[in-house]
Amino acid sequence: MSSPPIQRALERIDLLGSISDNSNFRVRTLLSPANRRAAATLKDWMEKAGLIVEHTIDGSVRGILPGSNPEAPALLLGSHFDTVIDAGAYDGPLGILSALAAIETLQEEGIELPFPVHILGFSDEEGVRFHTTYIGSLGMLGQLDKARKAATDKDGNSLSFVLATEGWSNDASEICYQAEDVRGYVELHIEQGRVLEELQLPACGVSALVGQTRLKVIIEGQADHAGTTPMPIRRDALAGAAECIVELERLAKECESAVATVGQIEIHPGAANAIPQTATFSVDLRHADNEERLRLKNDFLKNFKFIAARRGLTLNWQTILNDDATPCDTRLTEQILDSVEATTGHRTTLVSGAGHDGVIFSRITPIGMIFVRCRDGLSHHPDEYASPEDIATGIEILVHFLRQQCTSQDG
């Protein structure tokens, strides 16, 4: 399929990708100037497609296609448009723009769906600014709890304060989905892995999203002079953290299908001639089996305690995120696979190793996902890439899925 909606989607990915808060790399975090410009751009494209468009105070956007029965439960399509630091152009925006292209394709064909479709663009999924994920989707469920609202950014401002002082309050809508409002949530996303590339497949369905645990680990030692403190009596927090990180890697390698990452570390006082007193580092742990994930968490924390005690250090940690594995809805996944098979000739599912906004929407509605192949499995990187051909295939799958909904029994 080579159509104007697909060509527009490809052009829009490039245009959205050019919006950044830094001229040297791509970054858009919650309510930053670039995040706001991206939201306004999405609103403009949705309005040009004839959708009824709204935004929330956190900067998320929604475009509504009413369908022939505007009062029926809505099908939700979309993804997020915030980014990590030095990001690629496809993680998140591809899902929003593919959904818009699919709707534009149906409009060109004169097809009216028998229920509303809502295209959602979430202002924050990555959690970079406040170190807490899913702010956009949680906001649309009215489930931003006290802990997330109390989270602070690098300037010490809480999320609740930022929403009150920086929020997109002008003409903002309060969007709060309930279970009875929704028939399902479907998201198209790059795989962020190498499996489709190895299988030589352009796209597939998704059976589940892995469980995730994120911790903030704090190791305290004793700052001292780097030149006058003998090695045997040092209480070096960074050396203790380094041993813990290597131990985490060892345990994760021994646990099949587990992945564990330390992506952030800070030390104090941070001088070349001072022994570190404090080392604070992140732990990101993922596994498709909840029991295995929790077992591994308990194992490495037990070993961290042992390492700290042996070195005369103190160990504390905070749980930042603890999400169980989320299965995709069986019935919805079968419908997606019908469309994958009709488009590609294959019927394949993968487990997502990344979290997505479907984790949040699964609290109220069935969820399903479509994966599109990405080159070298690379994501959260400026070289992240999905080919125009594979993007077109993903849009074709989504169009087929929507056509299928016109004739489904509950449509």
From TrEMBL:
Limits of the Peptidase M20 dimerisation domain? 211-305
Q: Which SUPFAM superfamilies match?
A: Bacterial exopeptidase dimerisation domain (SSF55031), Zn-dependent exopeptidases (SSF53187)
Q: Which organism is it from?
A: Roseibacillus persicicus
Asked whether the keyword Kinase is assigned, the reply is: no
| Name of the protein in question | Zn-dependent hydrolase
Checking InterPro entries in the record gives: Amidase_Cbmase, ArgE/DapE_CS, Bact_exopeptidase_dim_dom, Peptidase_M20, Peptidase_M20_dimer
State the needed cofactors, names only: Mn(2+); Zn(2+)
Sites binding allantoate sit at 214, 273, 286
Q: Which PANTHER family match?
A: ALLANTOATE DEIMINASE-RELATED (PTHR32494:SF19)
Keywords assigned by UniProt, alphabetized: Hydrolase, Manganese, Metal-binding, Zinc
The subunit field of the Swiss-Prot or TrEMBL record says: Homodimer.
At the highest ranks, the source species' classification is:
Bacteria, Pseudomonadati, Verrucomicrobiota, Verrucomicrobiia, Verrucomicrobiales
- GO MF annotation: an example: hydrolase activity, acting on carbon-nitrogen (but not peptide) bonds, in linear amidines
Answer yes or no on keyword Metal-binding: yes
Which family, according to UniProt? Belongs to the peptidase M20 family.
Cofactor: binding comment:
Binds 2 Zn(2+) ions per subunit.
In which residues is Zn(2+) 1 bound? 80, 91, 189
Residues the entry annotates as binding Zn(2+) 2? 91, 126, 380
Q: What residue range is the signal peptide?
A: none
